[in-house]
Amino acid sequence: MASVPVLVSTLTWCTPFVRRATVVSSPVCDLRSSRSGDYSQNTGRWSCGDRMLDRRPAPPIEGATNAARGGDDGGDGRRGGGGSKGGRSVKRSSAGRGRAKPGRAAVGRVLHKLRSLPDGASSSEIGLALGAARPSQLSARDYTTVLTTLRSERKWRTALQLSEVLAAQPREEGAPALPNRLHYNALLAACADAARRRDASAGDAALGVLRKMEERGVAPDSRSFSAAVAAAEPAGAEGLLAEFESSALASDPDGAPFVYCAAMRASLRAGEWEAALSLVDRMRARGVDPDSHCLGAALEACRAGRDGERAEAELAAARTMHADAPHRLSGVLVSTAMGACVRGGRWESALAIFDAHAADLAAGSQDAGPDPFCYAAALAACRRGGQAARAVGLLARFEEETLGGEAGGEGAQRPGGGEGDPLRATVEGGQLRATLAHLREQTVGACLAAGWFDEAVERHRGARSPSDRSLVFALRACGQLGLLRGADASSTALQLHAAQPAADLAGQIEADEALLSALASCGAWPALLAAYDDLAAESKARRPCLNLAAQAARATDSDRAPELAALAAAA
Fold it and tell me: Which pLDDT does position 93 carry in this prediction?
């Protein structure tokens, strides 16, 4: 019994640290992502490639005492009862534990056989595989499990062939027809997944599945149309949507938004953001209220079209949905609307949206403030508007909310590394580190835009693991120091460039050009030629670098000037 209070006290002591770990590891896959249908406002789950990050209950703790597990099962709960009747030890039947049910074993055999076949195997090959696995033991529900498993393993063509094998199998009198609606919906969802992976044949396959449903007397529902529309090309999606609107399903207030949202996302995939926005207007004209998923797609369309004014209107509609509890408004909708405003040049509106969202969260007694995406959009607005002081304050506020007092104060150690790093024990090399790097990058950019050149350089230099864009901003600040103030910041630029190798080729090219441009602004022509020679030796010199090198040669080395000018002209 002594282990139970020890366990409880240990969990109680760890609760603050678990809560902090949950906050700082909020799912951030890519702060520059358009965040299309990867986020579910209902479950709070985020997709990161093939992984799904969510907050699930912890598994039961093994090794708990019999007294802790007893009692609930009946009896008097006396010590040693083991959950049995009256506290006496009763041998449990082995029929329900330790031995797999026949259907479950058959599912495993079928999946094993199907996995050994290539995707798109013929129906005869699938029929042979099913015969060897004794499929008569499988129920309709077991076949649903098989189809959804094939979907998750991206074997959607095999799933289609399996459905044809099921349809051709003889069935006993009174037995339900297979495939049923759940099976067809699983097939359509698999086709939609394939379409999102840019498989061109998935749309026609989904349309074929829908037609076979109708031929075999299986009435499609809203989920069927939603998946078929998601798999179709924009032209095909329009036809399916018109067919849906002419059916009785269009009057379903719960199912209709699914179909419209799928059509909007099909338009967004094709780059037709105006068509996506017209679908929202079409919904409202037909008396269908957009749900949060439809509004999210509409805001993404506004972001793609740089329509900040329309984004504010759609966000206002989302606020109306949560009028009773504004703090429950999804951060996804807020940050997407902010991104649309920033892209449309309405940075003041973006900051106003952030402030209103933060106030709603505070009024709702929420422990956490706006999510990292909202902070990223707010800092992008500060960079667009040259609001350096606001950017510095927002970054300090985010660090305070995520890391607590360990990140506050001017003299505090900057988080992000070292043995005492508060991130090390929670998200070592994980999402918060990338989040902080991005937010600090935006802050350096805001300082550069506001003319705080010294602050931009110092903030980049003091950051742990700064991004490539942060380096580019800092190098541009060095160039501005030399151009506007006549200060010789060439040595600082060279040090910054040497201290941070770029993570990829695009970042390397931009950083190299920013370095040479900074040296040119400072008038450090010999240093510029030396830096160019180093880049040329590594085959990294591009045309802008050649132009700057030719300019430096004209100023200091007339013998090399014609050669470099010819190379620049030929590049």
Answer: 43
